[in-house]
Amino acid sequence: MLKTEELQINIGPQHPSTHGVFRMLVTVDGETIIDLKPVFGYLHRNHEQIAEQNTYLQNMPYTDRLDYFNSMANNQAYAMAVEKLVGIEVPERAEYIRVLMVELTRILNHAGALGFLINDMGMWQTQLAFGMREREKILDLFESASGARLMCNYFRFGGVARDLPPDFMPRLKDLLRAMPAFVDEMERLLRDNEILMQRAEGIGILPPDLALAYSVTGPVLRGSGIAYDVRKAEPYSIYDRFDFDVPIGTVGDVYDRFLVRVEEMRQSKRIIEQVLEQLPDAQGGHINPKARQNVRPPVGDVYARIESPKGELGFYLVSDGSTKPYRYKIRAPSFINLTPLGDMCRGYKVADVVVILGSIDIVMGEVDR
Amino acid sequence: MTRLDAAALRERMQNDLPDALVEPAPLKVKAAHGAKTTGFVTDDTLIAPEHLIAAALYLRDTLGYAYLSDIAVVDYIADDLFELGYRFYHVEGGPALVLKIRVPRDTPEVPALTPVWPGANFHEREAFDLYGIIFTDHPFLRRIYLWDEFEGFPMRKDFPKQGDKYIGEDE
Known about the structure:
The complex is a heterodimer of chains A (369) and B (171). Chain A is an alpha+beta fold and 369 residues long. Helices cover 48% and strands 14% of the residues of chain A. In chain A, a hairpin with a 2-residue loop joins strand 4 (155-156) and strand 5. In chain A, helix 6 (168-191) runs antiparallel to helix 11 (254-278) and helix 11 packs parallel to helix 14. Chain A starts with 5 loop residues before the first strand and ends with a helix. By secondary structure, chain B is an alpha/beta fold. Chain B has a single domain (6-27, 38-136), classed as Beta Polymerase, domain 2. Helix content of chain B is 19%, strand content 23%. Chain B has 3 helices and 8 strands. A 4-stranded mixed β-sheet of chain B has the order 3-6-5-4. In chain B, strands 1-2 form a two-stranded antiparallel sheet. The longest helix of chain B has 11 residues, at 6-16. Chain A binds chain B through residues 40-41, 44, 46, 48-49, 53, 212-216, 226, 228, 232-234, 296, 299-301, 303, 305, 312, 314, 316, 318, 320-324, 326-327, 329, 331, 335-336, 338-340, 368-369, and chain B through 29-38, 40, 42, 66-70, 72-75, 85, 87, 89, 91-96, 117-123, 130, 143-147, 154-155, 161. Chain B: Keywords: NAD, Quinone, Translocase, Transport. Chain B: Belongs to the complex I 30 kDa subunit family. Chain B: One of its GO terms (molecular function) is NADH dehydrogenase (ubiquinone) activity. Chain B: Pfam families: Complex1_30kDa.
């Protein structure tokens, strides 16, 4: 028996597979991971402190910069928190537009995330280019509605900034028509590839009891077989009107998390189709005309959460009766989903670490805040 | 799905954990821009810090609220205390149950939940980093965002918001 020695190495902070400036302090024995500690904060800007010095509306564009893939979802969580605090009603049509935008966001996030995941497995750029191609189409829609591709800043207290442009619906229908083929293609790219399957199946297993104890949310939790989705568990906005399923995995490995994301794209498409049916009959305009944007909420605290594409995104606000929040706390899904990374990687090989990290799907703008 | 609300939780805890409950005193939130200052009384369940672990495990093991969503610290400087809000959810859905504890600002010591509830790890490290809350018995209580040599806790209300003592030190 050859004597082995443990060795500590750094993966990152500057590494193409860490999805941003992120460091993993890894203890290895040969190729096997003994221990892994995530180290981050390289992008820390004390978002919460800055937000406490802004007025409530000034923070709306600032939430875009949290998870810069899903600015619409961040906007919705923040708008919901302020509306709950002040007591602003949202018209029906505005709610439909919001759901439409957030479900499109979910599709584009997963298209990108799956692309990056397979990129990390070594299928360099092919699937990423496919995902980005579809993402680009959705970003064009966002641009036509909000004026910006990424930092949309589209939501306002009591609705959205402006109504959908006339050519939005025909373009959206074209996109939906092409979508099933794209999602199938995405799924086949992994499933029909023997080499990629070996990198995904049985890797990074997170058992359900551990997933729950570690407070992970989103596709990571559902991949482990727990059907917890905020849209079903505590329906917000108008999600109780739609018929959709919550896909879950069986083992909790990288492959399950991949499949959950693929299926969620199909379910999001189902929700969007129902939105298209119901939107023409919706009451009200795109924004509540009585809603003031320069809000001055009564003294109190509030927590609002949504199912963002990465998990539970929540905003905790405390108001002291002034125009600026006294406390502004974000419950960021990517940040908390990193908690079990050490346990998920233990016992696997160094090459698996980047794949496991890719399957959690993090964005450093949200982790570091 | 009918789930417990804050009043029902207090009633249950009155029976099972009577020592833990504390009557919440109104907080003086200081309005910065001329708004009237009013007392803020929380609706959530306030408990004594030393009973935190027992109460959290009671929520998890007896009531089934097994998902710890969030730990939020608020600095109520006018009352000279920190308030920590722990947010628990049931996996089958429904609204949250919140446990709140209050600790004095000069000795912010709280028993760590991480040894029994690993999901609290990053929440507690964040609270330590930004507010300086000392979680006793935490296995790895280190700064999570800022570098280890950083002095002070930037989310505290009395942390200076202008100026940077690091600028000009090298010259």
